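Can't attach files on this board, so I'm pasting raw text. These are the components:
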Amino acid sequence: MSFFDLNGTLKPLTALKQFGKKPHTISYPKESKEAAPRYRGLHFNDLDECIGCGNCSMICQNAAIDMIHIDGIEGKKGDSGLRPRIDNGRCCWCALCVEVCPTGSLSLTKDYLYVSEDPDSFLWTPGKDNPNGKEQISFFSTEETSLNVFNRVPMPELEGKERVKSFAEVVLGYSEAEARAEASRCISCGLCTEVCPEHMHIPEYINAIATGNDADAVRIIYDNNPLPEMCGKVCTRRCEDVCAIASRGEALAIRWLKRYATETAATAEITREIVNPEIREANGKTVGIIGAGPSGLTAAYYLALRGYDVTIYEANAKAGGATMYGIPKYRFPIDSLDKQIDYIKSIGVKILFNTKVGKDISFKEIYDKFDAVFMGVGFPDAWPLGVDGDDAKGSMQAFRFLYMINSGEKVDVGDKVVVVGGGNVAIDAARVSRRLGADVTILYRRRVKDMPADWEEIEGAEDEGVHIVPQGIPIKIHKDEKGHVKAVEYLKAKMVPDERGGRPKPVAIEGSNTVIEATSVMAAIGQMGDYSFLPEEFTDKIKIERGRFVVNEKQQTGDPKVFAGGDAVNRTADAISAIADGFRACKAIDEMLGKK
Amino acid sequence: MREKATTLYIGPQHPGITGNMMVKVQVEGDTIVRARTEVGYLHRAFEKLQERRNWLQSFTLLCRFCVPEPDPVEESYARAVELLEGREVPERAKYIRVLMLELARMGSYMLWYGGQSGSLGLYTIGQWTVGDRNYILDLFEELTGGRVYHMYIWPGGVRRDLPEGFADKVLRTMDYFEKRLKDYDDLMFENTIFQKRTQGVGVIPKEKAVEWGVVGPVLRGCGIKSDIRIDDPYEVYDKLDFIVPTHEGGDIWSRALVRRQEIRQSIRIIRQVIENMPSGEYYNRIPNPFKWTLPKGDAYARTEATRGEVAMYIVSDGSIHPRRTHFRGAAYVHGITLLEKILIGENVADISAIMNSLGVCPPEIER
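---
Top answer:
Structure tokens for the assembled complex are below.
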């Protein structure tokens, strides 16, 4: 190369030809650039769809998201009432928050410009501070792109045809691998804990199962529930109704996971070994408990752990209350219950069976003997159907029928059973009758979707061949010449919207009379309490209103020494609420007696 | 008479330095007699931060290792995780990843054009190439939602499928670049000033190059054929037809020639990728990220970036967090030890040009 390179000197001058070309740039701000359809700009949150689960805040690796209260949004079941606030000074727009948002309410928009001298204004609540952001949504998650795992691991069950042959347990339980897979779907938002009457530590024990620490899971569960296997099998599981994953998928099988964890402890001894509870030294105080149902057992267990001398008086031959005598064994086998009762007894709870208060021992005697009394007496009696012909032979209460079956008594229901009602008791009675070989019809006055029974129970009943007749109001039971049930007559109903905004009401259609043949009729329209054991001298203080004891937030009745819980107190009438009552009462009793 | 040595501090804030780092040089007259690199202005402890973030969260940190070309880091991490977990990646995702990596390579080289010529006072090219790089960033924006930080290649595949009409846009952009590259040549490679200031400057001896740990285009500029895409093929590089250009000389000029040709090879690869990309899944979904654990063990994956080999080493103790991650980047070698060696004897005015030719990325050195 010579010192002067002509070509190399002139070539760069070709740049001059660019003068004649159209510029590539746009003249901002006269023109502005539209962001791409997938642009990751400032956040938008659909405040109505958001449930405040805080998942976005959890995944944010910049700690740019916190959950705050905003005016006009109140917490409710399945909604924490909190909404994410973004610190745009920290955000890196990675959009992981969008990818893990279970409802899909959080998204990023095309909006990318924000200028302010005030650094505090960089904190903003998407959806509230940019209500128009919805039109600009660009980066969002769909069921396909979401990182939530929406599909539940199916629970192995017996086939419908197999089931009706015996009282064998229908649900077979998760295997270890299935439980781990199911548990690992949980996002630990804790909305479930909030809605559980007993506020069980659900995300914690699910996490323990997911990470393979079943023993930890058992310990966490026993922290505030001494009957977890019962809950693992028959809980009404309000937790699953509010599961964040359920907003776009299937709720975590919280109940089945609890069942899995507790079943890893095969016997009461193993349970004792795993839970290894700290039992405090006896403090010399005594507590008497009436009724060995879920609320009484719970109060007894935790009081015994705290050093109290606890005695339970149980009218029946076995403990468990309605879960023993009301729930059929194919849902909750007797050895599963026994295992839990044995464990509770093993820490020092005394249970006196076949001891009916008011008959074998007076209430006064118990009241005088103990430092505190807890009543978990339940609803032992069922409402009769109350129609013409109700007194026929073969007309019975479903609850009573289940009691007899569960006590091992034989009941002849014939070959055609009609069950009236739509709750869990109705379904239980129907499915038990199927197992006794009868054709079963459920007569319910509203629609199937209005049935208060658990949807899985309804499906189970249908699988087993139970026939459901919705919108039918029974008006008469026909008898044969021997006074035995022959048929049930009902009127068809139409659904009329409730003016006050409640659920639609069934109204009978005149002249739509229909008759179904029947050999037995079972009424499953509700239960009621039996408070005859309570002497008059106590009823001034211990008040009963609308069939239930009146208690304060500590489960304390008008008599400071007497506490109550379970079905005889709360309207939800399920085991987990009873357990919560028992736990609350235990704390209150401990507080009261501990001071003395 | 021997001149007295003077100490000069080039950086950490200096337009000729490729980021926040300093080169402390002793000069006698214009000639460098001693060079020390000083880093520590950009350390963000990403490797440590990853230990407190779960396997998915860690992924969002990676793009910040090297801003001009973040994708190879994401690629190395994703492959290391997949290797450790045994997670399959759908074929389509592999093609999309190669597309991303090659687009990123082109984008990074566009910036290099600007830096390399700017360091010699030729500013027009930089304005053109950085402007043209925006067409690549437009593609990134459309595909990933982000122009610079893509956060797109993640364990299991890629985050989103190609949007409709994207392939055509890529091809149109490639057509544009093919025409445009000629303009760059006129202003840069045909330019006497560029030739004279780069030939024989910043020479790395061929026999020392491997020993010193030189990699990537810098090594290929010493006449040694080495490219992970060929030597240890990942994704679908073994199914693609391209060459690895090399040039003897070891100076800035040969490194520049290597890069100039690599852009053309990238265009060639991108065309093949678009043509052969199969349909199907783009992502083999990971489990719930909050509970996602990797088996105990470690894994190492490396990717060819414009700076050279960038590799990620991950160690898992079976939990949801990495126990340890370690990033091995080319800039560490090129920017610290190599620079100190080859600056000796050079003119002080060439520091910036040499630094740019080595692909030194201070944020990657310190991460």
